Amino acid sequence: MSTSSTLSDNLPAKSKAPQAAARIDINAKESRQQLRKTIRSARKSLTPAEQTLASLNACHKMIDRLQAQKAQHVALYLTHDGELATAPLINALWQLGINTYLPRLHPFNAGQLLFLRYTADTPMQPNQFGILEPKLAVRAIIPVTELDIVITPLVAFDAVGNRMGMGGGYYDRTLANWQLQGKPLPMGYAHDCQQVPSLPCEYWDVPLPMIITPSRVLTF
Ligand SMILES: Nc1nc2c(c(=O)[nH]1)N(C=O)[C@@H](CNc1ccc(C(=O)N[C@@H](CCC(=O)O)C(=O)O)cc1)CN2
Ligand SMILES: Nc1ncnc2c1ncn2[C@@H]1O[C@H](COP(=O)(O)OP(=O)(O)OP(=O)(O)O)[C@@H](O)[C@H]1O
């Protein structure tokens, strides 16, 4: 995709004069925004039938991987804005008796997520982005380090596992220490059309060791 070469060209270069570097930074931010827009519109333009088929194909691949990992505590997301649908996966996890969790925006710490147990009876409410999330219930909260797997939504990913999200930094903060702690294992979940050749990386971006799409299991 031609967008990605523009993005790489716009990355800040340490050798540039400060003013030029600042300008390049702004361009890089604009390019990230433009890329988000392009990919979000590509995934939204899939037909309902394509979305359904994609979610079933990806679900089979994800379940195989989760069983291979012997995962017992798995966080995922509720589909928003054309994201790869998780409904079949949630049903499969419930049937297998695997504990399932959803993120909710932290009530006090801006930019942080809390993860809460999700069952068919969980009371839900929409957050500020219109995404349904579990109502705050202290006993339903699981510390991130007790999750085996965090299935992360994403907007774009590249050929080496770099991830770009909706721009809030929520998953980057959640996963910042996963390698030091050894848990939870992040797994990207996305449509094939969300792949780009290369993404610009910032120091806080957490690359994904595995990404599952309807057609492939990618490991990095
Ligand atoms: N399904 C899902 N749940 C998720 C995420 C996600 O990416 N997908 N998140 C991942 O971090 C967190 C929420 N982050 C989000 C960040 C921005 C927008 C969004 O729609 N932004 C609008 C602007 C809204 C505004 O300015 O008020 C937009 O970009 O159009 C949505 C979710 C937690 N839950
Ligand atoms: N570990 C972190 N600690 C503090 N701030 C962070 C951290 N990770 C990301 N941020 C901040 O979050 C903002 C958004 O980051 P970015 O655009 O990479 O989000 P994203 O990966 O697209 O979103 P998300 O993770 O919610 O899907 C950036 O301004 C960045 O400074």
UniProtKB/TrEMBL annotation:
It catalyses: (6S)-5-formyl-5,6,7,8-tetrahydrofolate + ATP = (6R)-5,10-methenyltetrahydrofolate + ADP + phosphate. The keyword ATP-binding applies. It holds the Pfam family 5-FTHF_cyc-lig. Its EC number is 6.3.3.2. Residues 1-21 are annotated as: Disordered. Its cofactor is Mg(2+). Keywords: ATP-binding, Magnesium, Metal-binding, Nucleotide-binding. Transmembrane segments: none annotated. It is an enzyme of class 6 (ligase). The keyword ATP-binding applies. Gene3D superfamilies: NagB/RpiA/CoA transferase-like (3.40.50.10420). PANTHER family: 5-FORMYLTETRAHYDROFOLATE CYCLO-LIGASE, ATPASE INHIBITOR/5-FORMYLTETRAHYDROFOLATE CYCLO-LIGASE. Belongs to the 5-formyltetrahydrofolate cyclo-ligase family. This is 5-formyltetrahydrofolate cyclo-ligase. It comes from Shewanella morhuae. The lineage of its organism: Bacteria, Pseudomonadati, Pseudomonadota, Gammaproteobacteria, Alteromonadales.
